[in-house]
Amino acid sequence: MHNGSARGSLLFGSGSQFGSATAPDLINGGVNAVGTNSQTSVMPVGEIELGSEVFYNWGRFRLFGQVGVVGQAWWGAGNASQGLNLAASTPTFPTTTGQGNNTLGFIGGVARVGLSF
């Protein structure tokens, strides 16, 4: 038997980020820039699973085995080095914007064996 499922969820949370940089300055010896960002956000997550199942009915018990492929997408998850909205204290350092919409994706396999009654 072939089967599939799709699920969606919303993750609620908050986060903060701190960044600093030092750049050489021939006149002053160095320029420092510091930026921080904190946010409360909602992130949608989608998952799809496709696979096959074999089973054996044994009285009121059902022994089954499943194998499949699972894929997930986390919209707006970004990445660890995005520096979103870190405002530099000097115009010498450009700020990074517009990267908060990155989608993080996963793909993998699943194998299950079970007994239901």
Short description:
The protein is built from no helices and 4 strands. The protein is an all-beta fold and 117 residues long. A hairpin with a 2-residue loop joins strand 2 and strand 3.
What features would you describe in this structure?
By secondary structure, this protein is mainly β. It has one domain. Helices cover 0% and strands 68% of the residues. The protein contains no helices and four strands. The protein has strands at residues 2-23, 31-58, 61-75, 103-116. A four-stranded antiparallel beta sheet has the order 1-2-3-4, with no helix packed on it. A hairpin with a 7-residue loop joins strand 1 and strand 2. The protein is rod-shaped and about 85 Å long. Residues 88-99 have low confidence and may be disordered.
Q: How many structural domains in the coordinates?
A: 1
Q: In percent, how helical is the residue content? A: under 10%
Unreliable residue runs? 88-99
* Main beta-sheet strand count, sense and barrel state: 4 strands, antiparallel
Judged by helices, strands and strand pairing, the structural class is mainly beta
The ordered string of helix (H) and strand (E) elements is EEEE
Features of this protein?
4 strands, 68% strand, 4-stranded antiparallel beta sheet, mainly beta, 117 residues, single chain, rod-shaped
What's the arrangement of secondary structure elements?
Elements: E1 2-23, E2 31-58, E3 61-75, E4 103-116
Antiparallel strand pairs: 1-2, 2-3, 3-4
